[in-house]
Amino acid sequence: MILPEDLPKKLFEETKAPEILIPEKPLSLRELEKRYALKVLQETGGNKKKASEILGIDRVTLYRILEKEEL
User: Fold this and answer.
1) Which residues contact residue 23 at a Cβ distance below 8 angstroms, ignoring those fewer than 6 apart?
2) What letter would DSSP give residue 24?
3) Residue 60: how many CB atoms within 10 A of its CB?
4) Cβ partners under 8 Å of residue 47, min gap 6
5) Are 65 and 56 in contact (CB under 8 A)?
6) CA 70/CA 63 separation, integer angstroms
7) Mean pLDDT of residues grouped by 10 in the chain (71 residues)?
8) What is the DSSP letter of 12?
9) pLDDT in tens, 26-45
10) Which of 6, 9, 13, 36 is most buried by a 10 A CB count?
11) Helix or strand or coil: residue 54?
12) ∠ Cα 47 48 49 (to 5°)
């Protein structure tokens, strides 16, 4: 049996969620998905292949998310 004291202390430290995940008002999962995909795309300099790899989704799925955003 694994006890809490057997785990690394880092697991119990309070962490701050990224700003994108703390909206002022509740968002739908679809809106959160769009915002996060756009953020990752921005951080990859617009490289959709790399963004889709980071997101763990197929490029076609990323294109569909972006089409919803009308980019």
Assistant:
1) 32
2) S
3) 9
4) 41
5) no
6) 10
7) 82 64 76 90 94 95 80 45
8) G
9) 888 888 889 899 999 999 99
10) 36
11) helix
12) 95
